Amino acid sequence: MLKGKTALVTGSTSGIGLGIARSLAAQGASILLNGFGDSEAAIAEVKAAGAAHGIAVDYHGADMSKPAEIEAMMTFGAERFGRIDIVVNNAGIQHVAAVEDFPPEKWDAILAINLSSAFHTTRLALPAMRAANWGRIINIASVHGLVASAQKSAYVAAKHGLVGLTKVTALETATTGITCNAICPGWVLTPLVQKQVEAKAAASGISIEAATEQLLGEKEPSMRFTTPEELGALAVFFCSEAAANVRGAAWNMDGGWAAQ
């Protein structure tokens, strides 16, 4: 379905980003990966996912908190692939603390990576998308783009902002072949979340299974994690012709979290 298209997925050397990159590759899209993880292993996984289509895969290690590095990555992508057709803004970091105890440097870093980086990739990708009259911008905004949790002021502010950026971008491209939408996951079993489960189990002296039930029971009525593969399938849908008039949506895949 995406043969001849190129997708940039930020924060894609593991977890959600890697799952989405694999799903897009399986539909024939060439992929530009980005992140601080094991790039060689990620490249191998994505190449394997798109092997039937003979896709191209490359990597750029831009620090998504630095606009100049984002610009360098976007230039590299255009030179390497001709054009970036699909942008998946997934890069993100987290820090947990009460508002009065929140380190200002952590606030600034979370806003830079979780929100401002999406602005920079979007503004740089749009001219070529407009010239082609086709493009897909998908922002990974989290259920925390829709509802709040205590101790997560910067993350919640950034993700709410990302939903707002999604809506504005959708309005500004509404009469074109470009769409912009957000995906809002709840708990996803990534390596980062697995560490949180293990820490909860160790701190409480309980099993991994009991810690998992505690974590999910606090927020997610379905009592199961969303998978990177499910999020990847939704990203593929957003790139399809069936979603050509889905614009400015903040689509929660959260097991009922935001429905409460």
TrEMBL record:
Pfam family, one: adh_short
Domain of life the protein comes from: Bacteria
PROSITE patterns reported in the protein's UniProt record: ADH_SHORT (PS00061)
GO molecular function: 3-hydroxybutyrate dehydrogenase activity
InterPro entries in alphabetical order: 3-OHbutyrate_DH, NAD(P)-bd_dom_sf, Sc_DH/Rdtase_CS, SDR, SDR_fam
GO biological process, alphabetically ordered: monocarboxylic acid metabolic process
Family named by the database record: Belongs to the short-chain dehydrogenases/reductases (SDR) family.
NCBIfam families per record: PHB_DH, PRK12429.1
Protein name in UniProt: 3-hydroxybutyrate dehydrogenase
